Amino acid sequence: MTEEKMEFVKHKLINDDVIEARSYQANILATAVQKNTLCVLPTGLGKTPIAVLLTARRLEEYPDSKILILAPTRPLVNQHYNFFLKAMNIDSERFGVVTGMIKPGLRSEMYGEKQIIFATPQTIRNDLSEGRISLEDFSLLVIDEAHHAVGKYAYSYIAEKYREVAKHERILSLTASPGGTGQKIREINRNIGIEAVEVRSETDEDVTGWVKKKEVQWAYLELPESFLRIRTMINEEYQKRINSIKKFGPLKGRMVSKKDLISLQRRLYQGLKDGDKRSILLMSFVVQAIKLEHAITLIETQGITVLEKYWKKLRDGKSNSDKRLVSNKNVSGAMHLTRSLFDQGSKHPKIGKLCSLITDQIREKPDSKIIVFANYRESVKSIAGSLGKVDGAKPVEFVGQREGMTQKEQNQRLSDFRDGEYNVLVCTSIGEEGLDIPAMDLAVFYEPVPSGIRSIQRRGRVGRQKVGKIIILITRGTRDEAYHWSGMQKEKAMQKTLDGMKSGGIQSGIDEF
User: Fold this and answer.
1) Pairing, β 214-221 against β 395-398
2) Closest by alpha carbon to 25, among 1, 54, 4, 3?
3) Region of 304 on the Ramachandran plot (φ > 0 left; ψ -120 to 50 alpha; else beta)
4) Res 378: pLDDT
5) Contact 401/452 with Cβ under 8 angstroms?
6) CATH, domain 225-343, list 3.30.200.20, 3.90.226.10, 1.20.1320.20, 1.20.1250.20
7) What is the spatial distance between Cα 153 and Cα 31, in angstroms, rounded to a whole number?
8) What residue ranges of the chain have pLDDT lower than 50?
9) Superfamily in which the 349-488 domain is placed by CATH
10) How high is the pLDDT of residue 267?
């Protein structure tokens, strides 16, 4: 769409020439004005502008009310704050960002003084339980990345308390990918009080004109012989633990997943509390099996550097399970070979392929913006170090605060990336949700993810304002392939669910769902 054809929203509380007038956003807004709404919209198509527009409508109707905008991470909270500040014709002094980094006393003052508050859900939950905030005067609660509203996540608690006391209740929840099953979406709807669901896909008539093409490619690699030897030694011990567990009956079937083991571990914890002696022996097998499964995943999908770090953690471990594993002949043999390959500078074949891809992209388009996703902090570090040797590449690591990066560092690195100081952003899952990097040319998945939600979010980092390319690295005969197919099946199930919601007229009400 050319700039000459662009039309912008006109409203006394919205700054001119900031929010484009899009019919699908207007249609979603029409529902959100009337009912608590779940908005399912592909990444990059403007969920936040809908929140801004609804904020303007609520403040127009209730001028003395307050607005609460929630997002799961601090970088995303700050991003919303900056967009609202730019878009709304409201004194900046009436906006406030509240996170756990601010002292409780100051947060209490901000709740009283500010009209539009941006916060992490954990902080609001804590302040609600401690009586530092009342939601009575809030005429709108915006819940971003609403797929988190399951289980005991803070969103559910906040929405419940809000609906109990709000004088002028309205909830808008936003997500690109709510989940693969109707059961999960029903849980989200129940937990946050949703009355209507608005779904749009990239193929909808009122959306297609705003969607840029995404070219998806899969790059297959072979695991080296030395890596296979390490895997064989670990897998032998892993299978012994699985067989021992199966003798007692808790695990059924040929295939046992990490999810199965973790689920069994939770049940055994309860058995230990109840004094079940059999649970003690089983727990030992399960804990060791989980650790061995993780080691197999690392050698298959990540490489020597990450596995060596994990082995060091086990060697330094004080638990009985760590000591038993370290003293095991096969495991110690795998550790020895890993150390030898680490000293030789051995890398997973993905590193070489990734460097080749980045080289080709920069050669073809020197001003490219590239994002690389990896599941582990150590992989991010290793990838960034290798890409630093690629001609023309200027990589920078971007990880979460739990992984060692402060909020200030996160904001600075994103700003530097946008300004061109770096051209390759190497990140963990922190980069999957909500990052505003509109000019991305290439996204590389260092590994597939077995989650339909995460796959959709990763792909959403490209094709926001121009054509983008996505390349997924897959090592043959490994968990990479299993995760790839699992993610694809979950995406298909999710799309089927969403299509059913659309065709069933669910947008206007959720009773039939």
Assistant:
1) unpaired
2) 54
3) alpha
4) 92
5) no
6) 1.20.1320.20
7) 26
8) 1-4, 463, 505-513
9) P-loop containing nucleotide triphosphate hydrolases (3.40.50.300)
10) 84
CA-closest candidate to residue 74, choices 127, 122, 119, 125:
119
438 secondary structure, DSSP code: T
Q: Is the dihedral of CA 154, 160, 166, 172 positive or negative?
A: positive
* Encoded tokens for 40: 């399912």
Q: How far apart are CA 466 and CA 364, in angstroms?
A: 16
Which pair of tokens denotes residue 475? 């090592």
Nearest one of 346, 418, 415, 426 to 390, comparing CA atoms = 426
Retrieve residue 235's tokens: 């897998």
Q: How many of the other CB atoms lie within 10 Å of CB of 248? A: 12
How far apart are alpha carbons 202 and 343 in whole angstroms? 48
DSSP string, 229-293: HHHHHHHHHHHHHHHHHHHTSS--SS---HHHHHHHHHHHHHHHHTT-HHHHHHHHHHHHHHHHH
Q: Which fold has domain 3-210?
A: Rossmann fold (3.40.50)
Going by C-alpha positions, the residue among 259, 223, 188 that lies closest to residue 36 is 188
Cα distance between residue 56 and residue 62, in whole Å: 10
- Reduced to 3 states (helix: H, G, I; strand: E, B; else coil), residue 486 is helix
Secondary element (H or E) of residue 433: none
Q: Are 501 and 197 in contact (CB under 8 A)?
A: yes
Tens of pLDDT, residue by residue over 158-170, are: 999 999 999 999 9
406: left (phi over 0), alpha (psi -120 to 50) or beta: beta
Give the pLDDT confidence score for residue 106 in this predicted structure: 95
Domain 3-210 shares a fold with domain 349-488: yes
| Contact of 128 with 68, CB cutoff 8 Å | no
pLDDT of 162: 97
Domains in the chain: boundaries: 3-210, 225-343, 349-488
Among 201, 186, 191, CA closest to 143: 191
